[in-house]
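@channel anyone free to eyeball this complex?
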Amino acid sequence: MSPRGALPFALPLALALTAPGEAPGQPFPADVRSALDDAVELYRRVRAEQLVFATDPNERYEVVVGRFIFERADDGMLFNIGDEAFELEAGREGGLGSGEPWGPFPLPVRNRRLHDGERGGLDASSCRSCHFVGGPDGGGAPSQVALLRGDGRHLDAATVRDAPHVMGLGYIELAARRLERQINRRADIAREQAVSIGMPVPAQLVADGVDFGEIIAQPDGTFDMAGLRGISPDLRLRPFGHKGRHRTLVALADEALQIHHGIQSDSRRQTRADDPSYWLGDGPPFDPDDDGVEREASAAQAVLLASYLSMLGVPRVGPPSDPALAFAWSRGRALLESVGCTGCHRESLRLDGYETTHTARGDDPFSHTLDLSEAGQDPIPHRLDFTPDDEGFVDAAVPIFAFTDLRRHDLGPGLAEPTPEVLPDGGGEVPGAVWLTRSLWGLADTGPYLHDGRAPTVHDAIEWHGGEAAESRDAYRALPEADRAALRLFLMSLTRNPTLLVE
Ligand code: HEC
Ligand code: HEC
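replying in thread with the prediction:
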């Protein structure tokens, strides 16, 4: 939320910038002035670094970290280093590139938008280049869609995907863990009972109101999974990616480094050693992508990116201040529920606490734990309700207002891809029409919408809903236009704190 050249601000500042009645030409209030000074100062630092990199490429190694960084840096420093790793343009020296080994002199790197299977492409040299719409850590523009898992040559063979924004994901990961724990507990209890009584025992996998269907524990300790819904058969909840591909930010970051930048970390090589040709490339063992750079990043690189991402603040709801619009806004909020959107885009999920642990994959499973209530950037979600329930028990869970249920749904043939997505790490296959309910927080700033960015507006996004969402889409269609407008108005209040950027 507070990357290079950018500063986050709370609403009052945004209002201050446009405060009605302020005489033209009047100087900014002191807080805006000082924020602006900070942003300009950051810009100067970024420019200075660019000049250093231009003259001394080895300086770029600074952002390719080893695990020692976690021992030396405090949370704030870790955030800044992670921020650099997310923002900086990588170079050949840092492992950028694939398939073009060094000759007597370093050969130039060549970008390749079209990915070659799981090996990826070379479609960007920084994470920022696809995650900047709506501000730092934002989504992707229509012209930046990633062209994944193709044959490296034909556009038609590629899977088109739009980049979501990456704010609030640390809390999404924690909310997913909570749901996962609950359904696994239910499954374990059913299994114990089935084994002990020697008869099948069904288990309803409902957690915090999210329904993952029913499985039946068998006396031999296995499960009949035919009734399972919206989650992989290993009962692990994968909240990241449009299909629900990754369970952790570390796994996602490790993959992103390779498929977008050709940076293969030690952990990536080790976790994909079962079929290197499919996942990594045909090069030598320490340089599978065959670009002449061995051991391009340590396992710590993905842990750093995951730590950074998890520390980012959450998007917020910004209701309009105009009284007429405020009225329509509250109507829109009620309609979201009454037309059935919240059946999938659940208003809130909950976390059990703020502690999050990012564990490296591969042979060196070191981990780093953060307390997001201390390490997180503003806005940090807070516990709002301290009212005891009937038994005098105060629920310690922290709500996040992400508008998702973190499970997969079939949205019908209109949104289907021709082939299923085969997930890594035992996640199984996700059919073409099935997608993870996209969170709606931050929506206003991160168009275009849907997995491939086909929908320029939220109206279009709703119209594309089919399958399990057809009923809800039809209910939206059946509303009088004023109500549809109120619903869209509410969706447009799902935004993020204004950011002051000097670029
Ligand atoms: C070429 C554009 C591109 C670049 C560069 C890129 N991403 Fe992404 N990112 C995407 C797309 C597209 C998705 C959605 C992929 C999918 O689910 O199919 C995504 C998804 C994500 C998500 C999951 C968000 C969610 O809510 O599910 C995270 C986190 C993320 N990227 C982090 C990174 C990091 C870290 C880097 C740099 C190492 C990076 N991205 C570089 C395009 C990009
Ligand atoms: C059956 C579950 C379900 C229901 C009901 C549902 N949605 Fe969705 N929604 C999804 C899924 C899954 C996606 C992701 C689809 C994709 O990426 O192609 C999505 C995506 C969206 C998006 C695009 C978000 C983005 O950032 O790309 C919007 C906007 C949206 N839904 C709004 C609504 C509204 C408004 C309603 C009620 C009229 C609604 N949805 C009902 C499951 C549902």
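from a first look: The chain has a mean pLDDT of 90.
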